Amino acid sequence: MLRAGMIKKGMIAIVVLGAVLVLAGWRYGAVQTTRYDSREAEEALRSLLTVSDQAPGTLDKLVVKWQGDWAANGENPEVIAAQIADQLNMPAVNKLVENGHTVYRSVRDSESLNLRLNMMERQAEQWYVVVQLDSSAAGREQLVRLHKLCAELLKSVGVQAQWNTAVQRSLHSEKSVNQLLKLTEESLARDLSMQAKERYTDATTVAVSYEAPKLPLSIQSGEHQVHMQMAVHEDGEKHDTRITLGFPLITIEY
Asked: Mind telling me which Pfam families this protein's record contains (predicted)?
């Protein structure tokens, strides 16, 4: 799908495609995971992190996204947004208007952990809530705790939310992206049965989607399920390589 000379556009296209597929999966129930049980949400995330720890390189970024629909049913969305922000120890929400739609937003940044809350009006009485947790290696355990809290919190306020996660690792290597992909596949396959289903490639990037039934998150893609997507990208400017794992798909730029 990706072509040489269009690397940046191709990368963005895959990320957008992943986001669209994940959203479509949530909408029609194709993502298979426990929706609200906080203990199982924590265990599922920890199991995915254990898998990602087998990949080469050092952890640069860990992202968890919770998102889903919220129906007002006479409740005040600003109050609900404020409640979510308060429980996550975030600043007071700001009311914005974007593309003619009301948005309640709060952002909390720190050196090891960033939080983003967006509650967006889709139509009358219908809202879409996104909570994004973004950490470095230093904030990993705090992120896991907040992930568990999100499972409880979003259920308590009536958000029909699901989650996905992405892990990004970096390393300096003389190996090509295809060699690093094979090396990572071999490392993960020691404890994980996985089968490649879709592949995208260009001069500096290779991305593959896998069926791996042992993993707790999945999405239907055509006639098969995808549980994990991996991308290996060579950054010529920084002279390093990034390995990005998405469960079930990558929804961040790599």
From this structure: DUF1779
